[in-house]
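Honest question from a wet-lab person: if I give you the sequences of every part of a complex, can you actually get the arrangement of the whole thing, not just the pieces? Trying it with mine:
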Amino acid sequence: MSSATRDHEHHHHKLSPEDWPDDRDFGTISAGKMSMWFFLLTDAMSFAGLLLAYGLLRGGSEVWYFPAEKGATMPDGTLASEAAAAANWFTEPTFGIPFTAGLTFLLICSSVTLVMAYANVVEKNRSRASLYLFLTVLGGTLFLCGQMQEYWGTFHFLFSGEHAHGLIANGLIFGKSHYASTFYVVTGFHGLHVLSGVIYLAIILVRNMMGKYDDGDYNEIEIAGLFWHFVDLVWILVFTFVYLIPN
Amino acid sequence: MAHVNRKEYWVIFVVLALLTVLEVGVVEIEPVASALGKTGIVSSLFLLAVAKAAIVALFYMHLNHDTKIMKLSIALPLSIPAVYAVVLIIDAQVRLLP
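Yes, you can. This is the full assembly:
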């Protein structure tokens, strides 16, 4: 082998996470993992900007929204429909907390299945790792289905042909109020992350099924895991700030 | 180095699920909500959300196995917009006071 070929092969040698040099400040964290953390920090700043805008608009408004549900009242006890009429404004639907709590639980489930997939890659158990990766992708997909149901009432439409379900059909229209616009911007941006995560993890699942991680190299799945857990982490904040904080 | 602790992963899962139940309970269970009042509800929800987010970062994103400088490199840039947000939102609310 010529020295040029040897140098070339050395240059492309795949470093397993165990081979990374032990840096004094950052330990044995791989370049890929560090890059994902950099990306996640910039991504976190995008979410921070959106949540800050949401918080400022909500914190600076005298009335955030007038609930449309029959008999709903304002914090001061007046009937929401009458308060809306008096303010020359309109009523809008309230977000369903139990339904969204179910979506939150789905994401938590998909986080534990992903760390179990990671554990099985480390322990070189390909079939178990594939099963857990599949469950993670399924959890993410069901979350997206839940979001479609929430926005458009997709499943009511598919199963009964009714158009009356979902937030949009009930009057939560993007651009109509700060309450509506911030909701769609924040949850839509998060939903795009879930979609990206589902595609990303589906690719990792296929690579695992092809035996790419049979040597126990967990670097790729750990990096993908960082992204997915970040999506879960952001949802924890979105669920609290957008859904749970009362009017 | 790989850090695998299956038992810990499932314990964290149960803790996250229980904290979620607690969050929903704070808002949906009427006697609890009235006892806490709006400030109590918002403070509890904020603390619960921060606790859940920290648990995910430390145990599922394995930050607890990373070095101190790595932890600081993540936590510090994230805490700045959080503090900024809290100050600005409080300011916006104070301006609304009669």
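Two things worth pointing out. Chain B is about 85% helix and 0% strand. Chain B touches chain A through 50 residues (CB under 8 Å).
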